[in-house]
Structures are given as structure tokens and as C-alpha cells.
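Journal club side-thread
Mid-discussion, someone asked how the predicted structure for our own chain would compare to the paper's figures. Pasting it here so we can look after the session.
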Amino acid sequence: MTEPTRISHRIASIAESATLKVDSKAKALQAQGRPVISYAAGEPDFATPSHIVEAASRAVLDPKNYKYTPAVGLPDLREAIAAKTLRDSGLEVSASQVIVTNGGKQAVYQSFATLLDPGDEVLVPTPYWTTYPEAIRLAGGVPVDVFAGSDQNYLVTVEQLEAARTERTKVLLFVSPSNPTGAVYSEEQTKAIGEWADEHGLWVISDEIYQNLTYDGVKAVSIVEAVPALADRTILVNGVAKTYAMTGWRVGWMVGPADAIKGAANLQSHLSSNVSNVSQRAAIEALNGPQDAVEEMRQAFDRRRKTIVAGLNEIEGIVCPTPEGAFYVYPDVTGLLGRTWGGVTPTTSLELADLILDQAEVAVVPGEAFGPSGFLRLSYALGDEPLAEGIARLQKLFAV
């Protein structure tokens, strides 16, 4: 008789978040006194705007925030999210169609858990955020990668999606702007993909966490705005983390049709109950209060975006498309592989990332965390000076 495993196969099969793993390693080295510059974490380096912090400070002193509140979120916050959804995604919803979650990750997991039965397939445009495949598998689903390389600016086509569709396909994952690539689908591309999904009766989970971080006059058009008919089969995932520099406050949300939201609400009532009331009060202020600080941060990201793209493209062997959104670059580094650098000859982007950390004391995330090897993800959500210093180190390491 086979001895039972100590933990479930389902949990044992989950890999640690690669981005958090690299960031933790970088911070450990920094704590040892090494001058490591980390491009690993998708986390703004700015402080949360003061008016949001002040709202939280007031909430801490108010006893009404010391008790349980509705598992699906404070009514005022759900109203604010509904208003934001209309404002930025072009979709009119009621507050009853909103669930407030512990960060965007919980919203992502709950969305898949609500829609998927064992064996259901999800089309995942690749490169993808490292959590998506794990969340799909935890829900019993099967992630199906649909890869678009740097030659396509990391944007999949309807033809690629159709080639990957089977009778088991139930959900299309749509992410614009993208983590890890920063790619943004145009309105025409979004409409074409949305109409294709509608034609085949697919559900769509659309992660819009970076929708307010776009550049060069580009707008991240929501798939439900491009194709309103999809609203009855689409769950929108979002949160305050990236736009408002509130990663540690843990406030995200999901918006969708009544039956899906009811199911997800039942799940959350057993899974986590309500999000911290103090954080929810802060999120209300973030959405309803002044937006000046958001624009200042966006302009800083834009400046850094231009700096890092130009610096990386000066390195022979690196091809770095210009991202139009989020705060990441995703250079193609296949031109560096198979060559010897400092006595080491990396053949994968995982080996290349290790070499860069060891020899240049720069932390980057290898492409294996997001799909195929041959790429690196660098976040430019760090200060101007460390960003420039890190690029200088890479240029020195890979000087020909």
C-alpha cells in the first residue's frame, strides 16, 4: 500500500511565486550589505498618497471599523468601484455586482474558482503573470498557453486563439496592459478578440489592474466597452495596488454578472470574510479623492520607461520593445544566450538571471516564470538613480 503524502498533491504541485522569490533573494542580499539593485517586484516605490493614509488614520480611531462588515465589501466602497468601472471600463454596473477582495490575487483566484469545473480549459495569452496558471490549476482547470513573442509586441491574435480553442475551452484570460510585458491591445484588437470570444460563447476574465497606467496617449480599452455583448460573460478584476501605490493595503475587487458574483460571494463568505475595514476606508478615499498624485506617479513611470528601454536596447543581443502600459519591460535576450560572459555561458534566461545577479548584483526575473525561456522581466517601478545604475551595470557586464 502506498504511503499517503503529508500534504495534498494539489498543493504540493504549486510553485512559489517566481517574482516574489527573486525579490526576497534580492532583499536578503541587500540585508547582508551587498549593493543589489532589484528590478524584480511589481511594486511602486512611492509612498501611498497622504490623503489616503489620513483617511485610514481616521478609520483606525472609529470603533465601527472594529467589527465584522459584509463579506463582499463595504457598501460605500462597492459604490465607488461601480462608479470607477463606468468611468474607466465603460460598463454600468450596480454595487451588487461588486465583491471587494484581499488584493487582486484573491479576485483572480475566486474568478477561476467560480467559473471552472475539472478539465475546463482557459486560453492564457503568453507571456503571462506567474500566478494565472497556478490559480487555474487550483480551480481544477487546464491553462492553455497562446504565445506571442517580441516580434508581435507580445500581443496574441484571433487566429492564434482560434487555433488553441477546443471543445473544452470555457474561458479566455484577457490582460491589457500586461504583466509581464507592458503590452496594450489597441481598441481594434480588443474588439476583434472580444467579438471572437462572444461568437464562441466563452467567458472572459479580464485583469484590468494596470488600466490607469498607460503612456503615449494610449488608452487601455476594456473588452466590455469594445464589445458590450460580453458583459454577461465577463468578470473584471482590478484593485488599488498599482495605481495608488497601495500594494500592502490588500484591496482588490471583481465585477461581473449577478450569478457569477453570487457564487463568488458564497465562496468568499467561507474563505476570508471581509477585507480589513481600515484598508477599505482607505480605498474609498483613493477612488473618490484627488487624483493628482496618481498622475505624478504615472509621469515618473513614463520617464523611467523611456530610460530603461533606451538603455537596454544599447546592449548588443537585447531586443526590448517599448511597452505602452504597466511598469515593466520584457526584453528578448536570446541574443545573449550561448555566449560567454565572465567565464559563464548561459543557455537559458534562468541561467542568465543567475549570472546577472552574481556578477552585476542586479536582480531580474527570468522568462521561465512567465512562459518560454529567452526573456527577462524588469520592473521600472524603482527610483531613477538605482534604475540608471542597474542599467549601467548591465551595459558593463555585456560590453562586447
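Post-session note: The chain has a mean pLDDT of 95.
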